[in-house]
Write a structure and sequence with these properties.
By secondary structure, the chain is mainly alpha-helical. Helix content is 75%, strand content 0%. Helix 12 runs antiparallel to helix 13. The C terminus is likely disordered.
């Protein structure tokens, strides 16, 4: 089962950029939580900490597609150093403001800078894989590998951020996140041999990736998928607290991620004959169906078991979705296309967290799990109703300047 992964990692330069990418993407799982802990462990309120976390998340979502587009046009090695410098400056400004108990409003401008400048390492690494193994079955394995590494980051990163902020130094989580981004980002920038060549500077030659109708379908679907993730993060905590074991919420969420990790390993080791758009639609439908038993779980052990099963559909959805981006988006806009998917998931997480938080306060964690079912239904409906726009045989032939909306 692992031989396909050994094969892709043996490609010249692959291990180097995969390692750099793994280190550099930790801020995605550490920065928001680290900011919350920075504020609260320094004597601030959860309201301010939550607002700061939301600010970073929104800024990151806004900044991701333009950052990806700039990487496509000018090259990763040119974009990463100034982006990392801005990111580091934003994090430093936020830390100084919080630790010195400056007026609350001063926390937010540097946080916005940090969020806008978060380096899109995951998208850049996937663009390198397309250059290295694009057009071969190994691309499926490569995307599965990246999906699995994403799960590792989101399992390990929050633990590191929590331990550092609560046991070592209030700013330990965010500062470590910034340091890992610097190390991984610069290591990636220095690996020029695997970097996709910059596209021509003309915006007319390479219109925005979001003009591709199929990408708009993917973005809409992944906003709803992200809503499932955001709902789970909040609703599971409320559910566990209602059953008197709040500390087990992390275990349940870890099992959810474990299911995705297992699926990514299996999915990437197989050679698929079904077309990408069909695999994507089926995987999203499977994720929706997996949320129904979660909503019906009567206890924490049953909740963990159902979460494991539901998690099995996460990686197949993301892997097939990223494969569709590669097939549908013009080659000169790939990093931007991948960034749109990541942004969509982030927006969905923010929406799902907010809505489920209101439901938890009003009706409890068990009822809040119903929100994940609703998000799954929306995701499945979009993926199936507009699946004709995901056919890769017409993807790049579709005029990217069209104004049709999904």
């Amino acid at each position: 089962m692992l031989s396909p992964y050994r094969s892709v990692l043996s490609r010249r330069g692959a291990f180097g950029f995969v390692t750099a990418g793994l280190v550099g993407r930790f801020p995605l799982s550490m920065l928001g939580l680290g900011a919350l802990l920075l504020v609260t462990t320094s004597g601030g309120s959860y309201a301010v900490g939550g607002a700061l976390t939301a600010t970073i998340a929104i800024a990151t979502s806004i900044g991701a597609p333009p950052t990806g587009r700039l990487a496509d046009r000018f090259g990763q090695h040119r974009l990463l150093p100034p982006s990392l410098l801005l990111f580091g400056a934003g994090v430093a400004g936020t830390v100084v403001a919080v630790l010195h108990h400056a007026p609350t409003w001063t926390f937010f401008p540097p946080a916005i800078v940090a969020g806008l400048a978060v380096p899109q390492i995951g998208s850049m690494v996937r663009a390198r894989w397309v250059r290295l193994v694009g057009g071969t079955p190994e691309l499926n394995t490569a995307f599965a590998l990246e999906s699995g590494l994403d799960e590792v980051v989101f399992v390990v990163g929050p633990v590191i951020a929590t331990v550092l902020a609560t046991q070592v130094w209030p700013a330990g989580g965010v500062v470590t996140a910034a340091g890992l981004a610097m190390i991984g980002g610069m290591a990636l920038a220095l690996q020029r041999s695997t970097e996709p060549p910059p596209s021509r500077h003309s915006t007319d030659a390479h219109p925005a990736a979001i003009r591709v109708p199929g990408l708009r379908v993917l973005v809409a679907t992944f906003v709803a998928v992200g809503g499932i993730f955001g709902t789970m993060d909040v609703a599971v905590v409320g559910f566990a607290q209602e059953h008197g074991h709040r500390g087990l919420a992390g275990v349940v969420l870890g099992v959810f991620a474990l299911g995705s990790l297992i699926a990514s390993v299996v999915y990437g080791s197989m050679h698929w004959r079904a077309p990408l758009h069909r695999r994507f639609s089926i995987a999203v439908a499977g994720l929706f169906l997996g949320t129904v038993p979660i909503m019906l779980a009567p206890s924490i052990p049953v909740l963990a078991g159902t979460a494991l099963v539901a998690g099995l559909a996460i990686s197949p959805s993301i892997i097939a979705g990223m494969g569709l981006v590669e097939a549908l988006v013009p080659p000169g806009a790939l990093t931007e296309g991948f960034s749109w998917v990541i942004t969509a998931i982030g927006v969905g997480v923010a929406i799902g967290s907010s809505v489920s938080g209101v439901v938890v306060d009003a009706a409890g964690g068990h009822r809040a799990l119903l929100t994940s079912v609703a998000c799954g239904l929306v995701a499945t409906s979009v993926a199936w109703l507009f699946r004709s726009r995901l056919h890769t045989d017409v993807g790049r032939a579709t005029p990217v300047r069209g104004t049709a909306s999904c």
